[in-house]
Amino acid sequence: MSRRVQRVPVFHLDGNRVSQRVEQVCVESPLQILVRLGQGGSAQPLTITMRTPAETRTERDEEDADLALGFLVGEGLVRSPSEVLAVETPIGDDNSVVVTLREGVELPTARLARSFFSTSACGVCGKSTLDGLAAIPSETLRPGWPHVQIQDLTRLPRVLRQAQATFERTGGLHAAALFDAELRLVALREDVGRHNAVDKLLGSQLRAGTLPLHGHILLVSGRASFELVQKARMACVPVFVAIGAPSSLALEVARSAGMTLVGFLRDQQMNVYCGVERLRSGPGPLLRDEDVDDSEDVPACQMPHNPAAGRRLPMIPAK
């Protein structure tokens, strides 16, 4: 099984035809980046960044090292290879990287105090990972509600595009749209950042006093990542729809929360990854989740239970 993709069962809708198939979704896996000054210094957590794991351990080591170092360069913390002494993994942890910097490299306290996610977490790495990354919403979702007609769902991308005033002029903005149970557009927000678009949308509903958003549908113009589905989960949005593909952790978050997750909504087609019991074709339910054959839903990107302790990753020799 590839570490970069995960096979999942889906319901594929094409007009009035419904079929079950196995699709592949990209795997997300968390990488915690820690930094320390000098070999005797203590490692301080800097960020958790979501990445797609490489196929082999050697490739993963190289890519994790590159990712951590590139992040430090982009943040202005490292400017020369001479400032880096080593890049290594903590004992028993393949999802963390410790970058040891030369003493004298300036590490602003405020920057180290920041807690943020750089995107691309790993349902494949177990529930403890989800518990560590995802906050818990104040309310649980209401099972099987709202009921959404699939014929009406297919028109939402057109409504989204027609409401994107700036996108029509530039073609360069992401959008997030909120619909009520009758699929009427409630609010739409645009931004160059897809996370910002969702944050703006949810913030507008907080100001309007409409949270939690039971009985609503959230549509995004791009793909469904962990961060976006988790944001919807925290706002108690039961139905998440994406024009693009979902990731492995987005699917796991949606499943664990009891959400409906739809991807590749284009024209009369869509993939339903979970929560199909909310969808309707006429007066009755389309299908139910228990009808899914999940034998192909094999976890990918599983790390060894006993990884080598303190493994050092490839690094340019310090000058």
Task: Give the low-confidence spans.
Answer: 113-131, 294-311
- Helical/strand content category: alpha/beta
What's the helix-strand series? EEEEHEEHEHEHHHEEHEHEHEEEE
Helix content range:
25-40%
Strand arrangement in the largest pleated sheet: 2-1-14-13-12-11-9-10
Task: Determine the number of helices (DSSP H or I, runs of at least 4 residues).
Answer: 9
Strand content: 25-35%
The termini sit apart by 40 Å
Q: What is the molecular shape?
A: elongated
Determine the mean pLDDT: 80
Strand count, sense and barrel status of the largest sheet are: 8 strands, mixed
What do you see in this structure?
The chain is of the alpha/beta class and 319 residues long. 26% of the residues lie in helices and 29% in strands. It is built from nine helices and 16 strands. The chain has helices at 57-74, 109-113, 127-133, 150-153, 156-163, 165-170, 194-208, 226-234, 248-257; strands at residues 5-14, 17-26, 29-37, 44-51, 84-88, 96-101, 117-118, 148-149, 174-179, 185-191, 217-220, 239-242, 260-266, 269-274, 279-281, 284-285. An eight-stranded mixed sheet has the order 2-1-14-13-12-11-9-10, sandwiched between helices. A five-stranded mixed sheet has the order 5-6-3-4-7. A hairpin with a 2-residue loop joins strand 13 (260-266) and strand 14. Helix 7 runs parallel beside helix 8 (226-234) and helix 8 (226-234) packs parallel to helix 9 (248-257). The longest helix is centred in the N-terminal third of the chain and has 18 residues, at 57-74. The protein starts with a strand and ends in a 34-residue tail after the last strand.
